[in-house]
């Protein structure tokens, strides 16, 4: 990437943070542990540091799971945003027999839903995460269409979920982990019916649900 570059805009798309430059794009995917830190000096142990007109933007990632890529053109294979119009959802679900949780986490179907929020969305909608996507009845799809934006709006209002490294852009941890109802709560009692929350593996990921509320 030839330097210096001008930052024309910053936006989020799905799980990506995209810096539109005067030439090309700088695309970050922070995953579980990445951070972008804006400070007066470069952050210690940063994987990359961008000198700005004022201050420094440091890309920090203790566990090296996050990515930063420069590309001339923006090519992200992502489905629609989950907080916009979801009227396409019933039709899209009919085309897949995959378990609904894996369908929701496939970024090509719908952008931005990860393991934590998929679990919370399905609890909120009362749907078993193993159900084939095309088996959902219309009332269940309707509950899903309400739960997707509701859970994400609540998480955003609490500035995200912090288990270890996640910090928001101002360096503060999120607060939504206090409000999680099933994720990482195996053995604890369902807040709705009192049945112990179960944990299974689905697509190689820990999956939490209430066996009674989620049919
Ligand atoms: Zn329950």
Write a structural description.
With 215 residues, this protein is an alpha+beta fold. It folds into two domains: 7-71, N-terminal domain of MutM-like DNA repair proteins; 89-209, Orthogonal Bundle (Helicase, Ruva Protein, domain 3), CATH 1.10.8.50. Helices cover 20% and strands 23% of the residues. The chain has four helices and nine strands, in the order βββββββααααββ. It has helices spanning 89-94, 100-105, 115-125, 138-157, and strands at 7-13, 16-21, 25-29, 34-39, 48-51, 56-61, 67-71, 198-202, 205-209. The protein has a four-stranded antiparallel β-sheet with strand order 1-2-3-7, with no helix packed on it. A three-stranded antiparallel β-sheet has the order 4-6-5, with no helix packed on it. Strand 1 and strand 2 form a beta hairpin. The longest helix is centred in the C-terminal third of the chain and has 20 residues, at 138-157. It is globular. The model has no long low-confidence stretch (mean pLDDT 94).
Radius of gyration: 19 Å
Q: Using the coordinates above, name the CATH class of the largest domain.
A: Mainly Alpha
Q: Enumerate the spans where pLDDT stays under 50 for 5 or more consecutive residues.
A: none
**Biggest β-sheet: count, sense, barrel?**
4 strands, antiparallel
Bound molecules: zinc ion
Share of residues in strands: 15-25%
Instruction: Measure the end-to-end span.
Output: 51 Å
Q: What's the structural domain tally?
A: 2
Helix content, binned percent? 10-25%
CATH architecture of the largest domain: Orthogonal Bundle
Q: What average pLDDT do the residues reach?
A: 94
- How many helices? The count is 4
Q: Note the run of SSEs as H and E.
A: EEEEEEEHHHHEE
> What do we call the CATH topology of the largest domain?
Helicase, Ruva Protein, domain 3
């Amino acid at each position: 990437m030839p330097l210096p570059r001008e930052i024309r805009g910053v936006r989020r798309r799905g799980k990506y943070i995209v810096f539109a430059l005067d030439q090309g794009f700088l695309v970050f995917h922070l995953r579980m542990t990445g951070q972008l830190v804006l400070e007066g000096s470069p952050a210690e142990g940063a994987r990359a540091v961008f000198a700005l007109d004022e201050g420094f933007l440091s890309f920090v990632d203790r566990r090296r799971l996050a990515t930063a890529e420069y590309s001339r053109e923006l090519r992200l294979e992502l489905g629609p945003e989950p907080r916009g119009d979801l009227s396409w959802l019933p039709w899209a679900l009919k085309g897949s027999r995959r378990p609904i949780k894996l369908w929701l986490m496939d970024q090509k179907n719908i952008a931005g839903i990860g393991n934590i929020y998929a679990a919370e969305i399905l609890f909120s909608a009362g749907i078993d995460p193993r159900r084939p996507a095309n088996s959902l009845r219309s009332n269940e799809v309707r509950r899903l269409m309400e739960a997707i934006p509701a859970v994400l709006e609540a998480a955003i209002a609490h500035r995200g979920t912090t288990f270890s490294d996640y910090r928001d852009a101002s360096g503060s941890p999120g607060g939504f982990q206090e409000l999680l109802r099933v994720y990482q709560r195996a053995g604890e009692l369902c807040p709705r019916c009192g049945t112990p929350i179960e944990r299974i593996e689905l697509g190689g990921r820990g999956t939490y649900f209430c066996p009674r509320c989620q049919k």
